[in-house]
Structure to design on (269 residues):
């Protein structure tokens, strides 16, 4: 009897101890379900392309390019067949361009042109692509690879979109780019003369300027330096002919005035 009473007592104690545990377990499980619901991402309604585009434009006007880009990216990814998809793709590149992230801008503009080569804004995209190189052009003393790329892209714009509103600006920038390349050649020639004492290499560069960039602003200086090399090498008549050309055609420049002085000195000797 005593043993049975003890077992009954222990059973009742176990029941009492188990009840709170069961309740805690139930509450715990319920709590876990609630927390899981809290962290579960609910599907968001897909905004129309029009709303996304307007939101992107607003962020662009605020110069919040990251947020603008996110809206345009959603159009490209979720509304690829909408009327806004092409412009959104361009504006993704434009946000990078305005941030000065030219490498990513170039990638986006090239992608646009591969997908929409005859879109109504393709000439604008081509212009921005060229400007992405143009705005990175280095000083004359440095490599001019970006200048060459800019000039190539401006030429492509003029060639493929001759009636574009950007064609005249592209032509002007082609001339500026050519002038920069001519200045580079002139700088290299001067370096050969002053630092390397290598008139042969300098002559090649100067003759290249006169041949490849005949309308550039550095032609008078190139002519004068080439005439000076001829004079130093004893090619007097060739030197005098160049000085006369300078004095006659470029009298308004510093190099034309220098040439006139050289001719007067030659005549007095």
């Amino acid at each position: 009897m005593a043993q049975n009473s003890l077992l009954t007592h222990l059973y009742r104690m176990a029941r009492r101890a188990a009840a709170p545990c069961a309740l805690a377990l139930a509450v715990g499980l319920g709590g876990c379900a609630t927390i899981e619901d809290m962290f579960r991402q609910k599907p968001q309604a897909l905004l129309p392309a029009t709303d996304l585009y307007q939101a992107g434009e607003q962020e662009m006007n605020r110069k919040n390019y990251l947020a603008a880009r996110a809206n345009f990216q959603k159009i490209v990814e979720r509304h690829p067949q909408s009327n806004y998809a092409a412009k959104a793709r361009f504006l993704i590149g434009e946000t990078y361009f305005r941030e000065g992230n030219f490498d990513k801008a170039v990638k986006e503009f090239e992608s646009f042109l591969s997908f929409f080569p005859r879109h109504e804004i393709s000439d604008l995209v081509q212009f921005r692509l060229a400007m992405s190189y143009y705005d990175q052009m280095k000083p004359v003393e440095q490599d001019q690879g970006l200048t060459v790329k800019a000039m190539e892209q401006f030429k492509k714009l003029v060639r493929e979109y001759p009636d574009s509103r950007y064609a005249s600006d592209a032509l002007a920038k082609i001339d500026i780019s050519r002038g920069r390349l001519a200045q580079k050649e002139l700088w290299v020639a001067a370096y050969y003369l002053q630092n390397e004492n290598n008139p042969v290499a300098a002559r090649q560069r100067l003759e290249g300027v006169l041949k490849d960039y005949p309308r550039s602003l550095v032609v008078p200086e190139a002519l004068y330096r080439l005439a000076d090399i001829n004079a130093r090498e004893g090619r007097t008549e060739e030197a005098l002919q160049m000085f006369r050309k300078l004095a006659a055609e470029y009298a308004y420049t510093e190099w034309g005035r220098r040439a006139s002085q050289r001719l007067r000195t030659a005549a007095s000797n």
Q: What stands out?
A: Residues 77 and 85 are 9 Å apart (CA to CA).
